Amino acid sequence: MSKFEKTIAMSIQPREYDAVLGSNNTAAFTDAVLGGIEGVKRRLATGDIESRIIALSQALNYGEAGLDLVIQALQDRSKQIQWSAYGLLARKTETKVEQALQSFSLISEAGIDYSSLQYLLASQEWEKADEQTRKLVLQAANRSDNWLRKEDIQSLGCEDLFIIDRLWTIYSQGRFGFSVQKRIWESLGSEKPDGARGQEFSDRVGWHKQKTETDSYYDILKLYTIKRREDIPCGLNAPEGNLPSICEFGGGELLSWYESPDTESTMGFYGGGGYRNKWSNDSFFGKDMVVCFLKRIQACPEIP
Description:
The protein is mostly helical. The chain has helices spanning 3-12, 36-46, 49-59, 63-72, 79-89, 95-102, 115-122, 126-140, 150-155, 158-171, 178-187, 194-205, 217-222, 286-298, and strands spanning 19-21, 32-34, 254-256, 278-279. The protein folds into two domains: 37-103, Alpha Horseshoe (Leucine-rich Repeat Variant), CATH 1.25.10; 120-299, no CATH class. A two-stranded antiparallel sheet has the order 1-2.
């Protein structure tokens, strides 16, 4: 190869962040190389969703021009691209980024405004964000002053669940959110009965009280109470998937007790035996509620 040919060959070799047209995304001498920001623009315009998401992350390596591309992607036709751009911009402090994020719509097709949740998560007010999530889910189910029943969970809009998930996932850096809980739930294996999986899931994420050798009879019954453990902080040090606390979405009206009531939360296990005797017909508690909600999340293709 002549000196001239070597010079040409070196000039078309891609840099670290250049997009390459060719098999396996690797550069060969005969491949067409789209250099720099122009290559990123091409992939954003013509690639599949996965390629476009990769191109978005590469765009930030090209300074202001790349940043502008990511900001423009907030208006993309694809929700996945919009939220990928949002995730890349969420922790940036440039004025134009903050203005773009402020104008990004967080109102679902059902008319629920999630900007209050975004503010709390961006401020790392984890406990308040958890409480607000419950309020918003109940609002989406038209149950604002009550609790979720089975039919409410099954009718929850996937878009509302998706927005909540994206906000939690982005601002927790991937530790919390419905998609994280979905992944943990699916990792437990479908061969187990739902009840056993519900209890194991709650153990894994830090909701389900553990049994000890010193537990009394009533303490053993409290084993079935599924709620946030008091000794686990409401923050990034909590177990993965701990938030939002979907275990707090259930509830019901207590009509009578089999024994004298103690101070146990009404977020307990709903079943037979001598612990709780009678609840209102639409009460929905513990592992049954958690399993039902996780299955609803699993049924939403928008939630990864």
